[in-house]
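Q: What would this complex look like in 3D?
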Amino acid sequence: MKPGEFSFELTDSCPTSVRARLKTYDHIVVTPARITDSGLGRTQLVGEARYTGRIEMIEGWKTFSGSSLMSWLGDGDSPSKGGFGPPGFIGGTAITGPGNWKHFVDAVFAEDLRRNGLTLGTYHSAFTTTIADDQIGENEAPRTAFDRFARITGNEYRVNADGTFDSGDPSALWKSGTAVDLVFTRSATGDDADGIKGVHVTDFRATLDGADLTNNPVVRGPTQENGGGAGTVRGFDGNFVAINKLFPVQTDDLGDIVGIYDYLSASRFPTTSGRFEIRLKTDAYDIGRYLTAGQPGDWIYVYDRDSFIVDGFLFAHSPTTNIVYRGETIFPLDTHRIVEISWPIREGMGVYLLKTRDGTGAVVDLSEFIKWETADTDVVLSTQNPLTLSEAVQGFN
Amino acid sequence: MTLQIGRCGPDPALGEHSSFTVAGGGSNAFEDEIQLDGWMSGSSQAETNALRAQLLGHMSEPDVAIPLVWGTDPTQTGYVRGLKGEVDAPVGVSYQSRTGYAFRYRLRATKLAHSSMPRHESIMTGAIRTNDLSITSGRYPWHGLPTAATAYDFEGRLDTIYTRTGVGGTAKVWAPATTDYFDGYPSWTLPPANFYDMATTIKVGSTLYPTVGRQIISAGNETAWEMTNGLIRIRPAASSTSLLRFGMYSLAGGPSYSARDLEIGYSGSWVALNYQKIKSISVQRNSPVECIMRLYLDVTAGSTDTYVTVDISMRRGDRSATIVVKSPKARRFGIGPTATPGSAWTNITNGHYEGADDSDGNRLAFSTTSVYSNDNTNGRTYATDPANVVVLGVHGEVVSATVAFPDDKDTLINRWYAAVNEQQRVVIP
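A: Here is my prediction, written as structure tokens for the whole assembly.
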């Protein structure tokens, strides 16, 4: 997953004494409602946090922006030699393989200069595919390595607003299967008594993009190859045609080539109709309260007949999935996850400065001085693994 | 001179309207803007308030096409959309020695192209209800329309048209043994004056007036409401352990609704949730093709108990209703008749069936999507295992001795398992 971005602006009436306290690499915390406890300390604050971010840019000492805590694991791809380096780089002893996901995560969090202030959270049930020595890069940021290991093993990870690192099988790390309880729909909203909750959508933009449709990828080495041939889509003359994509590889080992083919053809590309991405807007307050850790990743239900967001419609057959919500039987898609959210800091939320640069961990309440934002929340839904997407934007903006 | 705008009207009492203006050249060459200025009147304050609420309800759904029926000028009768404007508070009035209540309105609307007789398109989406009974096939969807609907086209099919008769008139039903209505777009024509024939209707108030949209007055009306489609009618019960009064069509002394008191409750030792527990009502969907109401029931005062929601829905042309019971506390929710049956009920395929005709020759049947138990002595059907949600079907088999397809209990239950979500639109022919 990619860290998101945030930005906020202080009002003109904010006292200079308050503005002076914000420094780069201090942290800001957003809570769903203001906490008016004058003795509010760090532990309680991050326990209530909806979002925690690291201040990286200060403009005019009025506009502050930065990215989420995940950036402490590496905020770019540039490597560094060992020892002290810019935040997020692996320093000191190299990590060797083979090992599985847990082995590597433990190694990162065993070293202060690798974990960079974050702490180990929960391991959810994890895939145990082995990561070999030659798959571990030296002198690279932990986050870059985590992303690569995630592609290899199928695990995912997240950094919670309290700085803890959770990881594992995505279906355990996020809400999936029978635990899915959120419905995005235009016509209804509210919570049903059995736990299904609805989010009111004010605008749906669903795009079925056939450009990446790949019926049958071809993985081709110097002399060996796997894949190709006609797929399941008919062409201009009504016969099945080849919609293939060529992946030239260096290895000539057929086993490796078949492995790469299996990886590519297992839902990395749309194979029948195209990539169905749904962007929607909602006026819901604090969408994070419905989401695991307040972040994108959960599987959800989404239904809008007008936009053909209906179970089964992409594959030319009738729906099968149905749930009863608000007394009405609806036929939502259950294949999509939330992959991106962008939400406003609305009046009523709490915004706090956590003084970390000076080592005090003091909390300064900024809620009185924030220029509140009024835009809708944007949500992007997709079936794609978030690691294969481009830069996501998370946070309040 | 009468005017009916959507469900509002025809205004009965004073009937004089000030002006009606048609302005040509709307947003495209096919649409005209019309303006209506006048007075709408009812014979009582409550009726006048209800008329005004209906107009406001239509204004809250500007994208929905509604019929405008103009008594003295049939050339202007047709379908409009985008109703907007102002309505004033009702005042007492007298006109030509008649007295009543009236309110002033200033409205604008857009006449649809070919407004007097456009086509309607139904958008049908459906699937077999999610169930624990291993039902995965052989349950077919159907479509119901008012009898006045003509020129029906559904993918060129030539299916038999069945007639269902009720208190509100007759409906046409198409019920082929295929899954085509799970994903289909039938189209048809319907004159404006017949648009609300056999429509699903929600009425609220001590005098029951049809509502439009979702704004209803819940306070004081917890037991003053009705849902009907002209074939069945559901009201709150009036007897102490019952929740609902389910009316099915009766030929005897008719036509009328023969009412059956029903209990919704939960098992273990059967506990009925009676009508006095209804603490608020709300409208979830209010459309001529389907209406859905939600009842919030306060179960008991006690730390271990909580609330229950009962969602009731019915479709146009249906003799069945769907009742969804949800609660944060998992229970074995179910349904049963209030009166102890004279004859034991019988187990039937995927359901429960009344053992003998009632005094009108009708019989009830129940079905559910959960694994269920039938109590044949008391006629109850309930979920075998506690659950937070139980979906129940109530079916009214009319004149059971001579019942024919598709009104027989087996068909009603078979078709109930095929859930369909229907929306209708006006299209240019």
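A: To summarize the key features: DSSP finds two helices and 33 strands in chain B. The mean pLDDT of chain B is 90.
Q: Very helpful, thank you.
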